[in-house]
Each structure stands twice: as structure tokens, then as C-alpha cells.
Small ribosomal subunit biogenesis GTPase RsgA
Amino acid sequence: MTDSARIVASHGRVYIVETATGQRLSASARGKKSDFACGDLVDIQVLNGEQAVIEKVQPRQSLLYRSDQWRSKLIAANVTQIVIVVAPVPSYLDELIGRTLIAAESQDISPLILLNKCDLPEAAAARDALAYYEKLGYPLLALSAKEDASPLRERLQGHISVLVGQSGMGKSTLLNALIPEAGARVNDISTALDSGKHTTTHATLYHLDSQSDLIDSPGVQSFGLAHIKAEALPGLMPDLSPFVGQCRFHNCRHRQEPDCAMRQGVTDGAIAPSRLALLQRLQDELAQGNAW
Ligand SMILES: Nc1nc2c(ncn2[C@@H]2O[C@H](COP(=O)(O)OP(=O)(O)OP(=O)(O)O)[C@@H](O)[C@H]2O)c(=O)[nH]1
Ligand SMILES: [Zn+2]
């Protein structure tokens, strides 16, 4: 008999699935296929009280993965919100925000920029720097995970969210504040699946309530952009998109070409120079086939 279940943890080729009744089973894919992600809805065949086989994945609302020149690795499926965690100290990479926002736009996922560590005096300058994104229409939430993470809890309501951020921004602190048992549960799953083997990167889905889930995937800093066509990039950047089609040459690369509307936009102050530079870097990376 085939059942429907959600993947709530992925650990290399082994998964934990949760059925509609809340039963958790360890599951692996039939054959060599293993391109499933945490958050995926899958058809399973239950083998016994502990094990199942994943037959196939159900259509996805969104898919996030890490990619490099050689391969891509699925991270989270059906996510509806990406929370980009940044902090004033250690300083965050603006590049990661830009890339993650494009990945979010390309999958129709709502981004939320979260400025953590607002108890620190350096937060004011970070807040000012992030105002550029707010002007573009991206929501910004400033808080201190150490003092009170509840403003984030409200923003997660009704979503399947994933936390993204560089090391040191406070993702673990946030996760522990939102889901006190998170640390313990991750260890349970790791122990069950690893049985002493070297721990691989895994993603885990936590239920916040019946409508809200949070996926934690340690080590994820940004998501793959290799699936995006270079020509589509400006349309995924709200500050650049109004200038699409305005350059003299329809195939303008916005470098040395005369009458380039994007470069004019930078001169006029409508586009931050760093944003046009990001577009150009991504164009080059995609042309060479090595986008992150
Ligand atoms: N002042 C201040 N420090 C914080 C806050 N949130 C986290 N920190 C500190 O920042 C450091 C990094 O926090 P973590 O939660 O470990 O960060 P992380 O993003 O999970 O980093 P990795 O574990 O390396 O992936 C720790 O020393 C935390 O105590 C905050 O709101 N205010
Ligand atoms: Zn141009």
C-alpha cells in the first residue's frame, strides 16, 4: 500500500519521513535514486513499524539546492519563506544577501532579512546598510536572539521557512530560542541514522505548530543559482528590473556598451554600484558554468 509522507530529515541517502498520522519512519529511496530533499512530500511504501521505501516525489512548490561546477545537492523543498540571518558582528557578506534574494525570487519564495544581535551598538550601521533592501520591498526584521526571538516566531506563522546565514550570525541561538528541544532532537536523528559513522550535512524540519515549520540546514550559506538563465537575472533584481529592455542594444551586457540604461541607473543613483557588480559577476559565473 502506498502512503503519503513528508521528509522531515535528510541525511545523505537516508531520510526520516513523517506520515499524516505523525508516525516517523526511516526511509531510503528505491534503487540508486536519492534526489529528495527535506520538506518533500513523497509516496512511500511502509515496510514495517520503523522502515519505509520512498517510491516517488510529489510535485514541488519550490526547490532549493547548493550547487557548484560539478554537482548540485538538494537542500529543502516546498519552502515558502527564506529567512536570511545577518548580524553586525562578525560582519556579514552583502553578497550572500544578494544571491539568496535572487534564488528566492526565482522560486517565488518570500524572503525575510533578519538582522540579529540588535543589542550591540554596531547594529545601527548595519540597519542603515540594509535599508537599501527594505526600499526594494524586502521585509527586514531587527531583533536580538539572545533577548527575545518572539518577533521572528510571528513571521514564521503559516510558512515552511528555512534559515540561511553565515557562521556566527546566530542561527543556532535563534533555532534554540524557537525550538528548545531542537538540539536534542537533531542528536537523536543523527544517532539513529549515523550509527557511529562520520556525520554528513543534513537538514531537519521542525514543527512550530500545525501550520508552521522551520527547516534548519547547518552549513547552508546561500543557494544554487546555476538553474537561472543569465538573461533572466536582472528581472529577479527589483532595482534592475525597471531598466530591462531600456538599453540601446537588446543584448547589452551592461559593461562598455553605449547608452546602457543600467549603468545610467547607477550614475543617477537609482541602482547601487554593488548591485550592478553582482549582476556582472553572476553573468560571468553562469557563462562559465560555475555559479555557486
Ligand atoms: N550579542 C548577541 N550575541 C548573539 C546573539 N545571538 C547570537 N549571539 C552570539 O553569536 C555567536 C554565534 O551564535 P550562533 O548561534 O552559534 O551562530 P550560528 O549562526 O549558529 O553559527 P554556527 O554555529 O557557526 O553556524 C555566539 O557567541 C552567540 O552567543 C544576539 O542576539 N546578541
Ligand atoms: Zn545595458
